[in-house]
Amino acid sequence: MTDQPTPSLLDMTVGIVANYVSNNDLPPERIGDLIYSTHAALANVGQPEPEAVEIYARASAGQIRKSITDEGLVSFLDGRTYKSLKRHLSTNGLTPDEYRDRYGLASDYPMVSPAYSARRSELAKSIGLGAKGRKFTPSAAGSKPSPKRDRSPK
């Protein structure tokens, strides 16, 4: 490796500031700020960046009530109305539970608007989804099942 000693933080700061001042016009009252900011930047080299903690305003009860309309849900992220918040949240990197936690919403806060949910429910019922456990209809009661044929091995 090299036999040169590593320069101290003060030596590096002096060298950088001296080169900057010699090549740029700087008012004398700004030199102290330049020295301080250069020293602070060099002192933080190699240190992990502090994680930015974002603080979100909790929604008030009135805002929560107003955010749920029959035709859509108002997003607290961007203020736009959506029929379903699930895709909107996933594009913003959130799960429904994280969204509820971030804005102080109840665990039963809907992710789908009431009207949209009702339309989807009616559509599912009209095509017969979810009828597996229901009893047979009277029209089907009159027909007899076809008799099973005995199959003899060949």
Please write out the topology.
Blueprint: H1 9-23, H2 31-43, H3 61-67, E1 73-74, E2 81-82, H4 85-91, H5 96-103, H6 114-126, H7 138-141
Antiparallel strand pairs: 1-2
**Radius of gyration of CA atoms, rounded to a whole number:** 34 Å
The secondary-structure element order is: HHHEEHHHH
Shape: elongated
> What fraction strand?
under 5%
Share of helical residues:
40-55%
Task: Look up the CATH topology of one domain.
Answer: Arc Repressor Mutant, subunit A
**Structure classification:** mainly alpha
Count of extended strands:
2
> How are the strands of the biggest sheet laid out side by side?
1-2
Q: End-to-end distance, in Å?
A: 87 Å
CATH domain class of one domain: Mainly Alpha
The CATH homologous superfamily of one domain is termed ROS/MUCR transcriptional regulator protein
Low-confidence stretches: none
Q: Would you tell me the overall average pLDDT?
A: 85
Please state the second-level CATH architecture of one domain: Orthogonal Bundle
